[in-house]
Design brief:
Layout (H helix, E strand, L loop, with lengths): L1 E5 L6 E6 L10 E3 L2 E8 L8 E8 L5 E2 L12 E5 L10 E3 L2 E5 L5 E6 L5 E6 L11 E2 L3 E5 L5 E5 L6 E5 L10 E3 L2 E5 L4 E5 L3
Parallel strand pairs: 2-6
Antiparallel strand pairs: 1-2, 3-4, 4-5, 5-7, 8-9, 9-10, 10-11, 12-13, 13-14, 14-15, 16-17, 17-18
C-alpha cells in the first residue's frame, strides 16, 4: 500500500510513502507540524492480521520519502512503529498520547506521540469490537464498542477505565458532536446526550 500526499491547490503529488501492505482506514492526524499516518494489516483473522505501522512524518518532503532497506527512520520519516494497534478506528490524541482501539479484540494501545513508545497495551474489560472512532473531552478518551457501550479512559501513561456508559445495542458508527451534544447511533435508535440532561 502506498500513501500519497497531494498539493490541495494544484492536485500535484507532493510525496509518497510505501507502507508495505494493508489498508488505511484510520484518518491521519496532524499535531503541530507533524503528520501521523498508519495502516491496518488485513488478513481476515489470519497470521499478520491487526494493527499495522504508524509513521511520524516531518514537513518538507518530496518524491518518495520511504526509508531505504525497510529502515524505521528516514529524512522525512521521524520514526515508524510496527504493531501500533491502529486498525479501523481513527486514533484520538490526548495529553501527549495516542489511543488506538483495536477492531476485534477490545484492546487499547496507548502510544507516546513524540517517541512512538508504547506506554501500555491493555484489554478493556467487557469491551467488544471497536469499529467507531473515539473522542475526547481533553481529560478522557471515550470509545464506543460494537455493543454501544462507551468506555471512558483517563488520560495518562497508566491504564485507568473511569466508567462505562451502557446502551447494550449494536453500534458501529462514530458518534457526531455538535452544539454541545453527542449524537450516538445504534442499529435501533439515535440518541442525543447533553450535559445536565
Amino acid at each position: 500500500m502506498v500513501y500519497r500526499s497531494y498539493d490541495p491547490e494544484t492536485g500535484n503529488l507532493l510525496w509518497q510513502l510505501d507502507m508495505d501492505k494493508g489498508r488505511s482506514s484510520a484518518t491521519p492526524v496532524a499535531i503541530g507540524d507533524r503528520l501521523y499516518i498508519g495502516n491496518e494489516l488485513r488478513n481476515r483473522g489470519g497470521e499478520g492480521d491487526g494493527g499495522g505501522r504508524l509513521h511520524r512524518i516531518k514537513p518538507g518532503g518530496s518524491g518518495d520519502i520511504t526509508p531505504p532497506d525497510d529502515a524505521t527512520t528516514g529524512e522525512f520519516v521521524e520514526w515508524r512503529m510496527d504493531d501500533s494497534g491502529i486498525q479501523m478506528a481513527s486514533p484520538t490524541y490526548l495529553a501527549g498520547n495516542f489511543y488506538f482501539f483495536e477492531r476485534n479484540s477490545g484492546i487499547v494501545n496507548c502510544v507516546d506521540v513524540e517517541t512512538g513508545r508504547l506506554e501500555y497495551e491493555k484489554r478493556v474489560r467487557g469491551a467488544k469490537a471497536f469499529w467507531s472512532s473515539p473522542w475526547t473531552d481533553g481529560k478522557h478518551s471515550f470509545a464506543m464498542d460494537s455493543t454501544g457501550n462507551t468506555h471512558v479512559i483517563a488520560a495518562g501513561d497508566e491504564f485507568n477505565v473511569v466508567m462505562v456508559n451502557e446502551l447494550e445495542q449494536q453500534a458501529w458508527g462514530t458518534p457526531a458532536i455538535a452544539g454541545g451534544r453527542i449524537f450516538l447511533r445504534t442499529a435501533e435508535n439515535l440518541y442525543c446526550v447533553e450535559n445536565g440532561r
